[in-house]
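[Primary structure, fold]
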Amino acid sequence: MQSVILKPADAALVLAMNNAAVPNVNEATEAELAALIEMSGLTVALEEDDALLGFVLTLPPGVDYPSENYRFFSERYDQFIYVDRIVVSDGARNRGIGAKLYDLIGEHAAEHGIPRVLCEVNLEPPNPGSLRFHKRLGFAEVGQQRTKGGTYLVSLLAKEF
């Protein structure tokens, strides 16, 4: 297994995997993903035998991103890595891919002196597997909010280093 840092031109590589994970992540076009990767602090994929196993896209503070969840965290924290999306392919689940992606984020945070990683998990529509996964990794809830006009309820999570 190898990690690959993604650039905006690589958006097409993760597009189908991203959109297959809706509603747990937001659907996106190739151009939208490319723009997110452009403003990303770290976007990395894990591959094995030329097969994409999963990817994570993170954002630093201070970018112009209209996400309600990103705004929640930006109003409360100065230094962070925001996990905008983490996706593992169906065929690679239960192999530690998500944990490995978070290990890479943790290494990046340590190298850059960043004290926390932030993310959210859907409570409505429910995503209990992701909630258990994040709690197992040491994330704690720091808030909840309704998003997308009240149709989603998210648990806002933080892991302090």
